[in-house]
Design brief:
With 252 residues, the chain is of the alpha+beta class. It has two domains: 6-196, Bira Bifunctional Protein, Domain 2 (BirA Bifunctional Protein, domain 2, 2-Layer Sandwich); 204-250, SH3 type barrels (Roll). The protein contains six helices and 14 strands. It has helices at residues 28-32, 76-96, 142-145, 156-159, 166-187, 193-196; strands at residues 6-7, 12-14, 17-25, 39-46, 64-71, 103-105, 109-112, 115-126, 129-136, 204-210, 213-222, 228-231, 237-240, 247-250. α2 (76-96) crosses α5 (166-187). The radius of gyration is 17 Å and the shape is globular.
Length: 252
Amino acid sequence: MMARSEIVGRPFLCDGWRVHEFAVANSTNLLAAKLPAWEAVRADRQTAGRGRFDRGWVSDEGGLWLSAVVPTGPNAAETRALPLAVGLAVCDALQSIGLQQFRLRWPNDVLVENRKLAGLLLDQFVPELAVAGIGINVSNHPEIHDPALKNQTARLADLLAAPPDLRRLTQIVLGHLRRVVHQMQAGGFTSLLPRINLLWGGPRRVQLDLDGELRLGTFTGVGQEGELALLSDGGQKTTYHPWQVRQLQEIH
């Protein structure tokens, strides 16, 4: 049985956002589903955290589990690219607190070397609004709850001498998210693309799982709708959208 969500105190305001805080939540994305734009939900822990394709996401105490509602407008292509815009905002936030060595992994992870520091999940429950779920490992211990995660995750507590507390980190992330969304509204997703394509750490060998069909090649960046560009060994370039790719595995 899922735990009942427990609200903590009153919402607080920051950088144009209204943030609702919970001690425990089933899923912050589901709690945010009925909120208007520029409102957010943060929980100390989630009991039913989700990743892409409904994979589980360990959300133990000490991590940032945040869902923010942003306007998408009628442009379907920009809505499809929104996960990468959110990833850019998270990277901007991490850089602002002093983290330097990190990279994006398409379509929704932030890595330090080959360990996952943060993950993103975008849901759209109503037209022209999206819920951006953001999970960042701060001082939590996900490997205790899932031994398979041992040596697979990174934490801000191990990377920074003094990471910000969770409320301050919430404010920083939301501030950058608002700025990036406004930039995309003003100039389109393509205005963000040069910055996003600097965050992959260069081309790398990957294997794509297209729901059972495997494709090998070199990831070379993303296109104007956030689609992955794969260069085959024979020199053929093919693009894939996130819903086509069940899993991307980097080959080292």
